[in-house]
Design brief:
Layout: H1 2-18, H2 43-53, E1 108-118, E2 121-130, E3 139-143, E4 148-154, E5 161-163, E6 168-172, E7 182-190, E8 198-201, E9 204-205
Antiparallel strand pairs: 1-2, 2-7, 3-6, 3-8, 4-7, 5-6, 8-9
């Protein structure tokens, strides 16, 4: 009993000593500043924040300090190497058609006429005139089918040569016929019609038959 009373007295003394009034250095402590707690961000807000803070993808050709794309610049097209062109083959020549050009008539005029007729034959003439500007040789051809050429001659000029096979007279002039002049070829024909089937001088038909 006495032990319990002693313990209570000791506790009372300790309590009185602790409850002492404030001394001269005693001052109230500054109020604690309340730190606001961050609001709980929603999952959508966190995703948006993460997206905004996520670094932009790097553009090729930019330095790490730039984020804007470079301005487009015109680039000249690369010169292409000229394509090799195979040498073109020349077109094949068209097959030529072989044609025989008609003989060009010499600038000679010829007129046929019968001078005299008799039993069994007649004398005819081909008058030949050179209408060109130079001297010309000539060939006369007169045909009498079934007839016979007896003889032929030139009047008043040097003679040429003739043949009369099978009723066809062919006469080649001697000296060339001078420009602007004429010569008479005469011949004796037997057993034939006085009108020949053909008369030409150097390819030109005779008139008057």
């Amino acid at each position: 009993m006495s032990v319990g009373v002693g313990v209570m007295v000791v506790l009372l003394v300790v309590a009185v000593g602790a409850y002492r009034g404030p001394g001269p250095d005693f001052g109230p402590a500054p109020p604690a500043v309340a730190v606001p707690l961050p609001e709980r961000a929603s999952s959508a807000g966190r995703e948006a924040s993460a997206a905004s803070t996520r670094p932009s993808p790097a553009v090729p050709g930019l330095s790490p300090r730039r984020t804007d794309p470079p301005s487009p610049t015109a680039t000249a097209p690369a010169a292409s190497a000229p394509a090799s062109v195979a040498p073109s083959q020349p077109p094949a020549p068209a097959p030529s058609r072989t044609t025989t050009a008609p003989p060009v008539a010499a600038p000679l005029q010829a007129r046929y006429r019968v001078l005299n007729t008799f039993q069994g034959g007649f004398i005819a003439e081909v008058l030949i005139r050179n209408t060109s500007g130079g001297d010309l040789g000539w060939v006369a051809r007169v045909e009498y089918p079934g007839g016979r050429v007896v003889t032929a001659w030139l009047e008043g000029v040097p003679q040429g040569t003739f043949s009369g096979a099978a009723g066809t007279l062919t006469y080649r002039s001697g000296p060339d016929l001078a420009a602007g002049t004429s010569v008479a070829l005469r011949f004796h024909i037997e057993f034939a019609d006085p009108s020949p089937v053909s008369c030409t001088v150097s390819g030109r038909a005779c008139s008057g038959r």
